[in-house]
Amino acid sequence: MTTPSRRELANAIRFLAIDGVEAAKSGHPGMPMGMADIAEVLWNDYHSHNPGNPKWSNRDRFVLSNGHGSMLQYALLHLTGYDLPIDELKRFRQLESKTPGHPENFMTPGVETTTGPLGQGFANAVGFALAEKLLAQRFNRPGFDVVDHRTWVFMGDGCLMEGISHEAASLAGTWGLGKLVAFWDDNGISIDGPVQGWFTDDTPARFEAYGWRVIRDVDGHDADSIKAAIEAALERDDRPTLVCCRTTIGYGSPAKAGKESSHGAPLGKDEVEATRLGLAWAHTPFEVPQPIADAWRANEAGAEREAKWNALLERYAAQFPEQAAELQRRMRCELPQDFAAAADAYIAKLQADGPVVASRKASQMAIEAYAPLLPELIGGSADLAHSNLTLWKGSQPVTGGSPDANYINYGVREFGMTAIANALSLHGGFLPYDATFLVFSDYARNAVRMSALMQSPGIHVYTHDSIGLGEDGPTHQPVEHLASLRYIPNNDVWRPCDAVETAVAWKAAIARRDGPSCLVFSRQNLQHQPRDEQQVRDIARGGYVLKDSSGTPEIILIATGSEVELATAAAAQLGDKVRVVSMPSTDVFDRQDAAYRESVLPGAVRKRVAVEAGVTGFWRQYVGLDGAVIGIDTFGASAPAGELYKHFGITVEAVVAAAKAL
User: Fold this and answer.
1) For all residues of the chain together, what is the average pLDDT?
2) Per the confidence metrics, is the pTM higher than 0.90?
3) Residues 7-55: pLDDT tens digits?
4) Which of 340, 359, 456, 572 is most buried, by the most CB atoms less than 10 A from its CB?
5) What letter would DSSP give residue 68?
6) DSSP state letter for 5
């Protein structure tokens, strides 16, 4: 065989995708067939990566936002030399394979972020590009661009229809993310058919209005046209770039090209054979001729790229040793050695001082204490900074060009904010926190779920946590939200009862490396709770005995947040056979060993009352069907907080009555 043509190289992607979907009897062949030519030019001529080290910190980031076309990414990773052998492509969509139905960052080497929920991958790409820009501002020096990589993202019509794309694109233009390049797969087809009936936006004009550079009318099946567009995108400019690629979904399929029938189902045996004939691909399923395989292999070039960068980093470290050490520590996601001790000292001081503040204020106090120790900490709020109290004295906006930029004004964009924060974490070098009111976690929920699915460290701050916010009424008073967030697997939800528990929750969230934490704070002031040193240590276990009984307890009161003070007051009226358990994080408590959980909630003590200003059903797992739950199973109302607690029966008297009834 002579030197493979670009079309033959692209056809290797097409047929690996076709064959993978056909073997699985499930999947989406149309997009990989349509975007193969774009992917071939990008990955062979421009994408800077090293298949031998998928975690090389200065690699370009590639995001497949239209993740249903996952076989395109798997084909690229296999062909270029990642640890993704052909047998894994043959096991597409099968249990425990490295080729799941949608790309998952923790399953497949070379996949940067889990995609599939449309639009979120695009928002992640914005976050990756922001991370690169901020790290470059902080660490680069003249002649030493040790942070210098691009973010490429593929996306389809569905990504652009999702509202999150508007949020993220607007911010990308505002932030001037000149190293972000998005390729729009403009094929005019979605699952229901031609999009003219439901997607008539002038997308190029829309992105120009956001402040993007737009390259229009690119033939997505012509390598020269694609290459010219990428060259234009690489010209120095502070604007992100949208490349509008006209493509044919299912390209090469005689009967299904350009039709929705090629989108989400195998082509079928006969159509596969017709496509092989039409594209002159005379090879068996999953066969890639050696000359084509050799032309794709990128291991040697990738190793050379990384070696060149390592040499640059070595010279940088010789001149700027402190900066080099800090950059490498941050990219390894390691906390400063002195952080834990300093945090413990702050927590001990809080316990001694006993401030009576709202937990949202205690949260700001914790940020003030911890942030100077953590240059990687980067925060932001969805236009609620002065209510969420997420600003601190050292906050520097990312729009100011400061090398120490660490605060993001996201505007009213809860969903985009959370997906961008996820990417800041995934990129490395940052520990992000984002913030809004708890009731508006609904807007952000799918991105919160994705952070948990991706095991992405990050901190979601939610304030105004109950009917205790008062007069704004039921539209702003969360009821079901605590339980809803707790039901997300791998998501640690903390609702602390005072400043000490708040500081512990922040410390735990900062230290967590295998998933996100939701920190939920009150608007109203909370009483300080007395504790000994062991009780302070036990806060980190998610639940602990705050006030114990004399001897074996006859009844246990369990509470979180602002309701802990109701439980302690009720216990004082009920006598010395009552135990009060503060449960700031059920998720963390449930991970403790059985002996510890039994020591806090003895199985023999069946008389239990849980009290929390939220839906009651969640607490049945802790109190049983024979216990009692004081909470709220309706929407709230507009009135001062104190009146609302009385109106809805979340009071000391109600707790006492429930305990006596048991």
Assistant:
1) 98
2) yes
3) 999 999 999 999 999 999 999 999 999 999 999 999 999 999 999 999 9
4) 359
5) G
6) P
Residue 345 CB contacts under 8 Å (≥ 6 apart), including other chains = none
Among residues 491, 395, 377, the alpha carbon closest in space to that of 431 is found at 377
Would you say residue 1 has pLDDT above 90? Answer: no
- Average the pLDDT over 461-475 and give the result: 97
User: The tokens of 231 are what?
Assistant: 């060259």
Alpha-helical (H) ranges within 69-182 are 70-80, 86-90, 120-139, 157-161, 163-175
Residues 6+ apart with CB under 8 A from 194: 188, 260
* 600 CB-near residues (< 8 Å, 6+ apart): 543, 544, 545, 581, 589
- Tell which residue, 386, 352, 403, has the closest CA to residue 464: 386
Give whole-number Cα distances, 461 to 433, 438, 494, 539, 586, in Å. Answer: 7, 8, 10, 19, 17
Six-digit token pair at 549? 């009984």
Q: Per the structure block, which two tokens stand in for 554?
A: 């006859």
CA distance 497 to 522: 9
Paired tokens of 557: 């009161």
Q: Which tokens sit at 415?
A: 């969903």
> In sequence order, what are the residues at sequence separation of 6 or more whose Cβ sits closer than 8 angstroms to the Cβ of residue 608?
555, 556, 557, 558, 601, 622, 623, 624, 627, 628, 662
Block residue for tokens 């993740």: 67
Contact 160, 184 (CB under 8 A): yes
Sheet of strand 578-582: strand arrangement? 544-547, 578-582, 555-559, 608-611, 628-630
pLDDT in tens, 258-276: 999 999 999 999 999 999 9
Cβ contacts of 303 within 8 Å, gap of 6 or more? 50, 52
Task: Quote the DSSP letter at residue 141.
Answer: B
The owner of tokens 């084909």 is 75
pLDDT reading at 639 higher than 80: yes
Within 539-651, residue ranges assigned H as helices are 564-574, 586-590, 594-600, 620-623, 641-647
Catalytic residues: 414
Q: Which tokens hold the place of 551?
A: 């001897």
Per the CB < 8 A criterion, the answer to whether 74 and 99 are in contact is yes
The answer to whether the CB of 60 falls within 8 A of the CB of 43 is no
Residues in the chain, overall count: 662
* Among 544, 558, 541, residue whose Cα is nearest residue 592: 541
What is the amino acid identity at position 340?
A: A
